[in-house]
Amino acid sequence: MINLFRTEVYKLFISKSFWLVFIMSTLFGITMTSDSHTFITGYENIGVSFYYACLLMVFPILLGAISFGNDFGDRTINNGVCAGHSRFQIFICKVSAYFIGVNLVILFSPIVNVILNIILHRYTTVYFMNEGNILAKTIITTSLLGMAMSSVSIFIAFMFRDIGKTVGISVGIYFINISLLNSTNDIRTTIFRYLPLAQARLILYRPLIPNQFKDAVLIGICIILFFLSISYFLFKKAELR
């Protein structure tokens, strides 16, 4: 299983699709932040740097749709099963490698923005004492929420096993989520607050909403487990020819 996982990680890093998505998301995430000439306080740094993280989530959704869609189209998954690997091993290794890509795509540019703001605005050591814990929580929670959104794409990929339908439906669901969030003035007062994209915004509210990180982590974990469980069930029952 370790060798299978290494193979999947290797395939990720030599994939043109991954590097294209990674470069696009990084450029978007860095260029869409506030003007470097605008002073950003240490208190605002995390919120400003991670503000576009929920928009960046469309990129790993595309990556997952293309990767899993290609694996079914090229019969890579079928060949893995024929080679004697269990479906559980294949599923776990492919999803784990994909989630590595998800986190790199979502987190790289926000972290770069945090570092650039620290350098440009010369925050003192007091900043790290006050904001270090919040920054760590923001990174971990954003990671979970990104994987939660991406697990929906995995589910669609294993349901249709077609790259065109997977890309179209995954991106469509993403933009429906964005539209729902934009349709309300206060996310906290609607049922839409349970969406991963909504949670990615709520963790950036200042002052911090009580227990917001705990709520976001719980929602992220539940969505990941739910969609991955259904995806594996579909994969287990699928007839691969």
From TrEMBL:
What is the name attached to this protein's record? Answer: ABC-2 family transporter protein
Q: Tell me the superkingdom of the source.
A: Bacteria
Species name for this entry? Clostridium beijerinckii (strain ATCC 51743 / NCIMB 8052) (Clostridium acetobutylicum)
- Give TM segment ranges: 12-30, 50-69, 95-119, 139-160, 167-184, 216-235
Kindly state which keywords UniProt assigns to this record, in alphabetical order. Answer: Membrane, Transmembrane, Transmembrane helix
What are the top taxonomic ranks of the organism?
Bacteria, Bacillati, Bacillota, Clostridia, Eubacteriales
